[in-house]
Design goal:
Blueprint: H1 2-10, H2 14-36, H3 39-56, H4 66-84, H5 105-121, H6 124-135, H7 140-147, H8 151-173
Helix pairs in contact: 1-2, 2-3, 2-4, 2-6, 3-4, 4-7, 5-8, 6-8, 7-8
Length: 187
C-alpha cells in the first residue's frame, strides 16, 4: 500500500502524500523525540523531514525503500535541529514511554528517570545509533543505510554508544562521597 502511495506522491498527487504523512508522522516524530530528547525540537525536525520528503520524493528510485529513506531525511533534520536549537530546560520527556510496561510503578519511574538522564548526556551520534538499532530494531545494514555510513562504522558507534551509556549509568549509581573535613590544630 505504501509503495502505491509513494508512486502517486512522486507523480505530484497531494492526497497520496497527505496519506503518507498521516501514516508515518507518529513514527517519525517518536524517533526524532528519542534522538533529540526535546518535544519542540522533535516537532521541528519532523516537520522539516516531511518537507524534505515532499521536496525530494521524485528522487527516490525504489518506492519499497520509502521507510528507510524517510528515516535518513529525518536523521539529517535531527542533526540540523540539534545544531540550531538552544537547549531547553524544565521539560521532562519520558524515554521509551510506549515501550515499558511493568507493575512496579516506582521502579519503572526511577529506571526511566535514570535512563533519561543518561541518554541526555550521550552524544547525538550515540543516541541516534541506539534509537535506530534498539528502539526501531533496525539491522546494522539498515542503520548504515539510514546514516549513510559503512556497516563497520555502525558497529563501532554502537559499541561506543553502549559503553558510554553503561559508564554513565554506573557513574550515576555511585554515591558521591563527602571529603573529610580537615581538623585545624589550634596552638
Amino acid at each position: 500500500m505504501d509503495e502505491a502511495l509513494v508512486v502517486r506522491a512522486q507523480q505530484g498527487d497531494r492526497q497520496a502524500f497527505e496519506s503518507l504523512t498521516l501514516a508515518h508522522y507518529t513514527r517519525l516524530y517518536r524517533v526524532a523525540k528519542s534522538i533529540l530528547r526535546d518535544r519542540h525540537a522533535a516537532e521541528d525536525a519532523t516537520q522539516q523531514a516531511l518537507l524534505d520528503i515532499w521536496r525530494y520524493i521524485r528522487r527516490l528510485r525504489d518506492p519499497g525503500r520509502f521507510s528507510g529513506w524517510s528515516y535518513r531525511l529525518l536523521v539529517h533534520a535531527c542533526y540540523a535541529e540539534a545544531k540550531r536549537a538552544a537547549p531547553r530546560f524544565g521539560e521532562v520527556e519520558p524515554l521509551y514511554e510506549d515501550f515499558i510496561s511493568t507493575t512496579d510503578e516506582y521502579g519503572t519511574v526511577a529506571d526511566r528517570d535514570q535512563l533519561e538522564r543518561a541518554f541526555k548526556r550521550m552524544s547525538l551520534d550515540h543516541r541516534t545509533v541506539i534509537v535506530l538499532r534498539h528502539l526501531l530494531g533496525m539491522t546494522p545494514e539498515e542503520v548504515a543505510d539510514v546514516l549513510s555510513v559503512p556497516r563497520q562504522t555502525v558497529y563501532s558507534r554502537l559499541r561506543r554508544a553502549e559503553a558510554s551509556l553503561h559508564s554513565i549509568l554506573q557513574a550515576d549509581q555511585r554515591t558521591p562521597t563527602m571529603p573529610t573535613p580537615r581538623r585545624e590544630v589550634v596552638r
